[in-house]
User: Which sequence fits this backbone?
């Protein structure tokens, strides 16, 4: 019965987030808004952590299973991904280098 309550609270935050996203004049993921709402509720202690802890732990424990449909869906686009593999890897590496340079530079500036 406790897991049902946990999942109901998490699902309620998700549905409210999707409702808010539908009201916005621009596209924004409702799941992100729901997650932010859940964060606010937990931060302000309107919802105690104990109310969603077990349900959240269960979801985290089985998270790998939740990514299987996404990975299976990507298999349909192997030809498209293989054509742009160089660009994907180049973008990821250049982004990584840029982030490292910016963070390193900011760290140097913040040191007295």
Assistant:
């Amino acid at each position: 019965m406790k897991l049902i309550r946990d999942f109901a609270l998490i699902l309620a935050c998700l549905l409210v987030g999707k409702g808010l996203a539908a009201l916005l004049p621009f596209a924004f993921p409702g799941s992100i808004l729901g997650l932010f709402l859940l964060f606010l509720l937990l931060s302000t202690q309107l919802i105690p952590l104990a109310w969603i802890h077990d349900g959240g732990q269960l979801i985290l424990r089985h998270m790998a299973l939740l990514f299987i449909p996404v990975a299976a869906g990507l298999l349909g686009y192997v030809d498209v991904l293989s054509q742009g593999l160089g660009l994907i890897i180049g973008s990821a590496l250049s982004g990584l280098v840029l982030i490292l340079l910016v963070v390193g530079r900011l760290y140097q500036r913040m040191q007295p």
Remarks:
- DSSP finds seven helices and no strands in the chain.
- The radius of gyration is 20 Å.
